[in-house]
Amino acid sequence: MDDQKQERILIVSASIGTGHTQAARAIEEYWAEKNPQAHITHVDFLDTDTFSFDNLLKETYIKMIDVFPMLYDVIYRLSQGDRKGSAVQTALAWMLKRRMLKLIKREQPDVVIFTHPFPCGAACILKRQNLIDVPLVAVITDFEVHQFWVYKQIDAYFVGHERMVQELCEAGISAHKITVTGIPVRRSFFAPRETAYDTNGLVTVLIMGGGLGLGCLETALRRLDEVKGIDQLIVVTGRNSDLYEGLVAMQKHMHKPTTIYGYTLDIAKLMQDATLLVTKPGGLTCMEAITVGLPMVFFSAIPGQEESNAAFLEKQGYARWARDIHNLEDVVTALLNNPERLHKMAELEAQWKIDGASNIVVAAQELLTREKPKELK
């Protein structure tokens, strides 16, 4: 217990989308619950209002996947594989390493847990140069491994599914470093859900575009407004204020009762009261829906990780993927006309429900009992 009280935990996320940040918060939340004496610091590595490389990187990344998805697709595919992404990967890590060194020296952590590969790569460069000697943990919040996560200096990988073990092993990572924990979601998503339908007896479709409000939400909303059988629509635009204002203006012309949210912390309750989730297939959002037992329809998947997420989760039976947004209403209509199919999807999700945050904290604490960090150089 004395050793547990002295735990110093550094959790590093990056605010490119909210999934990485919410995963970090889920770990932070559970660790604090399990050991209130632990000193836990959660840092958004790209949270800055000043002009810097970090901010430029973040804004460029967001703009590319929103406005130039095909360019992002090319870069993603060129950087995936054994060696193709090593140049970009190494360049990003070197650019961020000075800031990472300052952070680790300041916090003096017993372990560093990463939910985004960019800061993780910077720490791996420092470890390779013997500038730090602290256990590094990677938490992958998608259902496919990207080259950007592959570093021999990482001491433990926590992944969402068994198939990712093979992917990491094929990339040269030792199997003993990899644990299938599930993707961490916050405690509120584990609240009991009464049925696969809204507690008010209404067929409610929840539409999300990720925390940044990316994707063709306006088009999706217009199409879903024409679907018979939907009683009400709820839309979450995230931090995209322009999108929020545009949808609010459009709201008065909608046929169906429609509620528009910007960034909200009530996602768990919205999911628990929904019949169906129509969303971009971000890993964290999908895991939240699976935990709740909410069937999904995917649209506007970002090339690369999200397309892989969509294909994998559709194959598991948790979701349908409208690969062309013009088919979105057909896919949604087919599901709403088949309540047995919806219930089956929810049952399959319940069978795979997994407490990723709990598993990660337990595994990380076991890692701490095996490794003691040395003094920083």
Write a structural description:
This protein has 15 helices and 12 strands. It has helices at residues 2-5, 19-34, 53-67, 69-78, 86-107, 117-128, 163-170, 217-224, 241-251, 267-272, 283-292, 305-316, 328-336, 339-352, 356-370; strands at residues 8-13, 39-44, 111-114, 136-139, 156-159, 178-180, 204-208, 232-236, 258-261, 276-279, 296-298, 319-321. Helix 12 links the parallel strand 11 and strand 12 (319-321). The strands form 2 sheets. It has a 6-stranded parallel β-sheet, sandwiched between helices. It has a 6-stranded parallel β-sheet with strand order 9-8-7-10-11-12, with helices on both faces. It starts with a helix and ends in a 7-residue tail after the last helix. It has 2 domains: 2-182 and 355-370, Rossmann fold (3-Layer(aba) Sandwich), CATH 3.40.50; 188-352, Rossmann fold. It has 377 residues and is of the alpha/beta class. The protein is elongated, with a radius of gyration of 21 Å. It is 46% helix and 14% strand. Residues 60-76 and 373-377 have low confidence and may be disordered.
